[in-house]
Amino acid sequence: MSEHHDHASELGEMQLRVRALETILTEKGYIDPAALDAIVETFETRIGPRIGGSIVARAWSDPDFKRRLLDDATAAVNSMGHTSPVGSHLIAVENTPAVHNMVVCTLCSCYPWEVLGLPPVWYKSAPYRSRAVRDPKGVLADFGVHLPAQTAIRVWDSTAETRYIVLPMRPAGTDGWSEDRLAALVTRDSMIGTSVALSPATAAR
């Protein structure tokens, strides 16, 4: 695993500055904390994951795009109009019956926010960052994912230079579905690898 995490201290300093600025603006009545929370929620669970979901749905529907995504995720994602400085280091890894992939950042919280939205709190937590490497099967069980005994688990450690997106397995019973319908089955956690894509029945609930 790479240890190129030179930006960790910068992130910490930036977070402190943002928190201080937020406190000052709140005290002066310039911002509403509830409104900020709503904005963060939107970017964390809607806008970002929706972009990633569209990428996964395209890969499920278009074998040529899937090949290009796995060969060079940066170029494939950029071809859909999604581009950013982080995206220039994006790698896609595919889940199969034989291998389940999971992403972590062991030293800080590197994360492909441009395609997945803001990272969840648990992704940045020390317990996840350490246990994902030591006990990935246990972590998956905590998330309710129980894989067949023969399925290998591969953990990918993100760095400042390289970010990952997991291409989850396409759910059964989705033949002939449009990309929009397929994208609705893709969750943020399934693109991190701590979950699987929703089944049609689960999504309909």
Count of runs of 4 or more consecutive helical residues: 11
For the sheet with most strands, the description reads: 2 strands, parallel
Radius of gyration: 18 Å
Looking at the structure, what is the overall shape? Answer: globular
Lateral arrangement of strands in the main beta sheet: 1-4
What separation lies between the terminal Cα atoms? 40 Å
Quote the average pLDDT.
Answer: 85
Query: Approximately how much beta-strand content do the residues carry?
Result: 5-15%
Query: Helical residue percent?
Result: 40-55%
Helix vs. strand class: mainly alpha
Helix-strand topology string: HHHHEEHHHHEEHHH
Q: How many E strands? A: 4
List low-confidence stretches: 1-11
Q: What are the salient characteristics of this protein?
A:
11 helices; 51% helix; 205 residues; 4 strands; two-stranded parallel ribbon
Structure, described:
With 205 residues, the protein is mainly alpha-helical. It is built from eleven helices and four strands, in the order ααααββααααββααα. The strands form two sheets. The protein has a two-stranded parallel sheet with strand order 1-4. The chain is globular.
Quick recap of the structure?
The chain is mostly helical. It contains 11 helices and 4 strands.
Outline the secondary-structure elements.
Blueprint: H1 8-27, H2 33-61, H3 63-71, H4 73-79, E1 90-94, E2 99-104, H5 113-116, H6 121-124, H7 126-134, H8 136-142, E3 152-157, E4 163-167, H9 179-183, H10 188-192, H11 200-204
Parallel strand pairs: 1-4, 2-3
